[in-house]
Amino acid sequence: xxxxxxxxxxxxxxxxxxxxxxxxxxxxxxxxxxxxxxxxxxxxxxxxxxxxxxxxxxxxxxxxxxxxxxxxxxxxxxxxxxxxxxxxxxxxxxxxxxxxxxxxxxxxxxxxxxxxxxxxxxxxxxxxxxxxxxxxxxxxxxxxxxxxxxxxxxxxxxxxxxxxxxxxxxxxxxxxxxxxxxxxxxxxxxxxxxxxxxxxxxxxxxxxxxxxxxxxxxxxxxxxxxxxxxxxxxxxxxxxxxxxxxxxxxxxxxxxxxxxxxxxxxxxxxxxxxxxxxxxxxxxxxxxxxxxxxxxxxxxxxxxxxxxxxx
Length: 311
Description:
four-stranded mixed beta sheet; 2 domains; GMP Synthetase, Chain A, domain 3; alpha+beta
């Protein structure tokens, strides 16, 4: 019982501290759709409480959004027959209506859904939201019961990126990010990602680590050399202050245009956050005029370079 109380507290904390951006976790080319449900508590010990089964979405992908929503909800309500799937919605729940306005989906369930409270309601809500927000252009989900809103600690406008459910006692959340990598023509290309933030981590550090890793898109490649790191990140109003060790300068490529592009990939990725307008780079905690050949005397904005090197 204590574990579940701690777990629910972690969820509430994550929801209260999460940002408002929603990541793109769309199925590739509409081929598959992930249907979310909750694992058994014993199975989830030490890992995520939410899990998925994946179903073919080829036939649905070209249909109107409303039809895709309805089919996804039917699968959540019990039509899904994939091994291991257990509906997070109470048995007997009926889908009364579903609609979309802009990028907000509105779902109306029958009274059985209203039997859910506390952690079970939170889990069911997020299973619905995480499933539906894979469908373009849905970014937010409102869930009604017999046309009425339920009292919810996490509110009635549910964003897929608000929380990551884990049975560990560490507070874990997710946040939306757009990471900039090098494209096939040498240009900077953004890749939308949903990144995990553990308690005590900064978003800047998580973004930098993600930029060091291989992009999810095959045509893209990271610009950061292995071993590149940051000493710290902090925010001063809308400016992110990134403190790099002097040793990073030795890792820069010889080509000055590539140096610029590499730094721009970091700056543009950080500036893609809703509350960051510019990045000030320090070296060993000190202001410098340049870092390699890159001018860092002033905060850098997330402007994408018009011309980029092809080599």
